[in-house]
Amino acid sequence: MAEFFVNTLQFSERLVTIFFDSFGKIFVPGIKVTIPLTLISFSISLVIAVFAALVQYARVPVLRHIARFYIWIVRGTPLLVQLFVIFFGLPSLGVLLNPFPAAIIVFSLNTGAYDAENIRAAIEAVPKGQIEAGYCVGMSYMQIIFRIVLPQALRTAFPPLSNSLISLVKDTSLAANITVVEMFMATQRIVARTYEPLLLYIEVALIYLIFCTILTKVQTVWERRLRALD
Amino acid sequence: MLTVKDIHKSFGDLQVLKGIDFTINKGDVIAVLGSSGSGKTTLLRCMNFLEKADSGVLIFDDEEFDLHKIRKKDINRLRKKTAFVFQNYNLFRNLTALQNVTIGLTVARKMDKKTAEEIGLKMLDKVGLLDRKDHYPNELSGGQQQRVAIARALATSPEVIFFDEPTSALDPELIGEVLSVMKDLAEEGMTMVVVTHELNFAANVAKKVIFMEDGQILESNTAEEFFKSPKEERTKEFLAIINHDN
Ligand SMILES: Nc1ncnc2c1ncn2[C@@H]1O[C@H](COP(=O)(O)OP(=O)(O)OP(=O)(O)O)[C@@H](O)[C@H]1O
Ligand SMILES: [Mg+2]
């Protein structure tokens, strides 16, 4: 009985030690890799999304078809497969990319395709009267789009866009598959040394949870602020 | 100043305008009356190119344009000489009252911000809403929104303002404030074309009345003559019904 007790105590002591020793080793790649990967990809994806949404809305010849095609391909194929194609596939064509930039490209294109649809829906929800009023005060189509339609649409699209940011934080863990040393990859390495998969995977899950919870809180505050303007 | 000739417009099989001619002179206040569906809104929209007429001619300050073939460049130039007040205000929802009034100056006409704001504040003052300059449209009552919309129309010093039932969407107690702003404008000599169901306004403020029926102008006269001795049977009926409703 006493022996069991001592064993258990030693066992949990070991777990506690591993937990705290690893925390920094997981958290630091989180700050240094996961967060930058998320933020850079998300920023680029927004530019892509606005562009892909606008060329469709404004019915720009050729470009709108390219945009549709891009969205069709990206939304119809798995993210993991896209990562593999870019990182492991492109070298056969002589295009060699480092893991981090490869991940940025894939996440930007992937999130951009989903957000393009969110933004397009929001643009289409802007009442016709807003555009007509813009013409009547003498603005050009471009001026109306950038001063009136887009600002209103981005406000409407804010909730789905924040959701896609939160998804992206979690999706960056897939970059481990193309050798990006982000949080999940860092965790896998510690597991290989310590053989404590349950503890460590729960630990990294907790850190993802912390990141997402913070983002959700920020989202809620902003949404409340934006709603005040509706 | 502005003449339209023989405007035709159909939506699919439905002929909405069947040849409309009329002239607006500087300083005119013209009330456009007519029953629902007679084509009043469509007429105003065709004159401001929000709707493309199937045929017709528009003469503005001695320049003549074919309404069907008019080029984008001319549309943009002509629109800068006019303004439009909508039934449901259509204030820009992402802009404050003041920004709504100045955007036609700063963005569309490249005026510097300071001059534009001076004008904007003057216009808001004119419609009695200086204290609401930083409010967003959703923070204003319908009547206030429509007054901001009128200030927005005035800011760009248009040669003519088109009003499409400016008070129809308002609660009865808010109609007065908007009509009184419009009356002031009329007295200052602003050229206005007003589609309205407010017969009092038409009788007391308008100089001319146009009565539309089924896509055509059935009767047009000075306001005084129109109300005193309407010529057409249909006009008399219309006036009787509306007077009865009021
Ligand atoms: N965009 C459109 N597409 C199809 N039909 C239209 C369109 N706009 C107007 N119409 C039709 O044209 C006719 C004239 O409409 P219009 O809005 O000009 O009438 P109105 O005189 O302004 O009526 P109201 O007093 O109800 O505002 C109506 O029968 C209407 O249904
Ligand atoms: Mg109408």
Describe this structure in words.
The complex is a heterodimer of chains A (230) and B (246). Chain A is mainly α and 230 residues long. In chain A, 82% of the residues lie in helices and 0% in strands. In chain A, helix 1 (2-57) runs antiparallel to helix 2 and helix 2 packs across helix 4. The N and C termini of chain A lie far apart (67 Å). The mean pLDDT of chain A is 94. By secondary structure, chain B is an alpha/beta fold. Helix content of chain B is 39%, strand content 26%. Chain B has 9 helices and 10 strands. Chain B has helices at residues 40-47, 72-79, 97-106, 113-126, 142-155, 172-187, 199-204, 223-228, 233-245; strands spanning 2-11, 14-24, 29-34, 55-60, 63-66, 82-85, 160-164, 192-195, 208-213, 216-222. In chain B, the strands form 2 sheets. Chain B has a 6-stranded mixed beta sheet, with helices on both faces. In chain B, strand 1 (2-11) and strand 2 (14-24) form a beta hairpin. The longest helix of chain B has 16 residues, at 172-187. The two termini of chain B are 35 Å apart. In chain B, 47% of the residues are buried. The model of chain B has no long low-confidence stretch (mean pLDDT 92). The chains are: A mainly alpha (230), B alpha/beta (246). Chain A binds chain B through residues 127, 129-130, 132-140, 143, 147-148, 151-152, 155, 229-230, and chain B through 48-50, 76, 79-80, 82-84, 86, 88, 90-94, 103-104, 107-109, 136, 138, 152, 156. Bound molecules: adenosine-5'-triphosphate and magnesium ion. Magnesium ion is lined by residues 40-41, 164-165 of chain B.
Ordered list of secondary-structure elements with their pairings:
The complex is a heterodimer of chains A (230) and B (246).
Chain A: H1 2-57, H2 63-75, H3 79-89, H4 99-124, H5 128-136, H6 141-156, H7 158-171, H8 183-194, H9 197-227
Chain B: E1 2-11, E2 14-24, E3 29-34, H1 40-47, E4 55-60, E5 63-66, H2 72-79, E6 82-85, H3 97-106, H4 113-126, H5 142-155, E7 160-164, H6 172-187, E8 192-195, H7 199-204, E9 208-213, E10 216-222, H8 223-228, H9 233-245
Parallel strand pairs in B: 3-8, 3-9, 6-7, 7-8
Antiparallel strand pairs in B: 1-2, 1-4, 4-5, 9-10
The complex binds adenosine-5'-triphosphate and magnesium ion (MG).
Magnesium ion is lined by residues 40-41, 164-165 of chain B.
